Amino acid sequence: MNFIPVSQPKIGDREKAYVNQALDSGWVSSLGVFIERLEEEFSRYIGVKHTIAVSNGTVAIHLALAALGIKPGDEVIIPDLTFVATANAVAYCGAVPVLADVDPVSLCLTAETIKAKLTSRTKAIIPVHLYGQPAEMDAIKRLADEHHLWVVEDVAEAHGAAWKGKKVGSWGHCGTFSLYGNKIITTGEGGLITTDDEALAQRLRFLRDHGMSKDKRYWHTELAYNYRITNLQAALGVAQLEQIDQFLSRRKEILGLYQKELKGLPGVTLNPQVPGGESVCWLVCLRHDNWTETSRAQFMQKLKEKGVDSRPFFYPLSQMPIYEQDRKLTPVSNAVYEKGINLPTYIDLTDDQIKTVSRCVRELLA
Ligand SMILES: Cc1ncc(COP(=O)(O)O)c(C=O)c1O
Predict the structure, then answer these.
(1) What is the distance in A from the centroid of ligand 1 to the CA of 178?
(2) Domain C-terminal end among 190, 217, 241
């Protein structure tokens, strides 16, 4: 049997045609029509006024925080259960990532868990829509507005998901997206920042390009960054974005088939549907009530021996030396992380392969 990976990008004729067009045009760096198209078409897709394309999803968060003026000593509330990039982007500003707990079902921040971490130094909140599941953005936005806090949504894993009928990435002051190769759409490496705020969009563009004066080329008044994307990457991104609806519906079908094949396994749940949320299936999340870190690792190893790759849920940041804090402060994150894995989820995964993976899972859990 061929080895089944967790993720694999879907690159077809359209991607190749657009990248070739970009190559033929000679515009291979950070000017070119595909960057403008990607930004315009993504704004339309999410339902915002502006999109700023950048080099990856990590710098998207950093640039958003920098543009909002987050500085040393500020506190930014983030979930304990997330990819490390969310915390690192805060640390790049010299600010303190404050780890709040997640909801046991959605695995996202809630207004309640955020409230518990507010101090006079809190300046921003970064809800992460983990594994395609949207956080409760209406309640979070209300709380943020009451306390005059910035909201930067980390949408790296949830392109197209919505909360109460409105796409995530359009709720906060900014939304940040990743276009890494394993994401819902990809540019190889890449990121996007969405916002409705014209002044903020201008500031993001300014900071993305070394803080160069609009009126005087090669004149720089403050420390900024080269966080630009290339026209080649954007060409790939435009081709992918044009297919996002098909990509998302295939991912939904994949989850549906896993749900059917794995139905009735004691202690096992797959991606939940949270009332109010329209999730997308970035990755199939399989949770087992009885797993510990050790038994989960053994399961993943045995699955690998059967030719099926999987990946563990993120470790809580509170367990990592650079962001360590008392695990009792975020009990849900510290209980749930070892109960879950992600199963193979990608567009070209066939129904037969899903049945094979499901059969292997069943055999190993029997
Ligand atoms: C939740 C989350 N935030 C941020 C990132 C960073 O994105 P990138 O890998 O494009 O820098 C990722 C993805 O890898 C992610 O999963």
Answers:
(1) 6
(2) 241
